[in-house]
Amino acid sequence: MSIDHEPRTGSEQIPVSSAPTRHTPATAPSSALALLRIGTGFVFLWAFLDKTFGWGYATSSSSAWINGGSPTKGFLGNAHVGPFASMFRSWAGQGWADWLFMIGLLAIGLALILGVGLRIAAVAGTIILVLMWAAEWPLARSNELGAATRSTNPIVDYHLIYAAALIALAATNAGDTWGLGRMWRKTTVVANNSWLL
User: Fold this and answer.
1) Do 69 and 56 contact (CB within 8 A), yes or no?
2) In the structure, what pLDDT confidence band is assigned to residue 2 with cuts at 50, 70 and 90?
3) Domain of 161?
4) How many domains, in total, are found in the chain?
5) φ and ψ of 110, to 5 deg
6) I need a surface site. Which of 16, 39, 106, 133 has the fewest CB within 10 A?
7) Is there a domain that residue 41 lies in?
8) Model pTM?
9) What is the DSSP letter of 139?
10) Sign of the torsion angle spanned by Cα atoms 15, 17, 23, 26
11) Quick one: pLDDT band at residue 67, thresholds 50, 70, 90?
């Protein structure tokens, strides 16, 4: 073993593999993204819980999923605007639609809160949110029944903002701060299947 007696000039690069690894403390931007991630996750998780148990906010106890209610019937059954209105009404109350919607709400909510699987959550969440946007069709001023839609913005509404937030959270590894993102990436399954990030 030889000892290098020449001083380092400061311009030499330490190889990445030999650089010490340590946990980087949360910065203001990463903390802000973590708050956005957890808050958005809670929006999805709350919707799942309220529709399942009927806590009396958006869903009454009598309409709760566990009491035989349909999580999609009210929203999709009242789709009377846009080119897809009849398609959405035909989906309303269907078992497959109820199960897909509720599994999506639960999985997206948990993924965001835990900080794992953010890519899948972003894709699934964006699909759900764009479908909900299309069911409300904010481009129209009135619906098929002649009533005003009361759309506040004809193009961008909260569904699309939530979708953009999901994409930003996945693109920035927002699960690393106050979440299990780093641990999730190190699992064998995720290491071998990057789409699970």
Assistant:
1) no
2) very low
3) 28-196
4) 1
5) -65, -40
6) 16
7) yes
8) 0.84
9) T
10) positive
11) very high
